[in-house]
Design goal:
Blueprint: E1 2-5, E2 16-19, H1 22-37, H2 46-55, E3 57-58
Antiparallel strand pairs: 1-2, 1-3
Bound molecules: zinc ion.
Residues 6, 11, 13, 15, 32, 36-37 line the site of zinc ion (ZN).
Length: 60
């Protein structure tokens, strides 16, 4: 399983997401970004998505 912390990409935020696949994490992070950080789909540029992927950690 993978986990991702919103804080790791610079937000002052305690949101953590866990999922089996990186694509599921990206999906959940996009929902979270929209809801809590007023980000649009367009704000998730390929470079931001790459950054998020790079910050994912393997967890039990
Ligand atoms: Zn957040």
């Amino acid at each position: 399983m993978l986990s991702f912390k919103c804080r790791d990409v610079g937000f002052d935020c305690d949101y953590i997401v866990k999922a089996d696949k990186d694509s599921e994490i990206i999906e959940k992070v996009m929902e979270h970004g929209k809801k809590d950080h007023n980000l649009n789909k367009e704000d998730f540029t390929p470079s931001l998505v790459e950054l998020i992927r790079g910050k994912m950690q393997a967890v039990e």
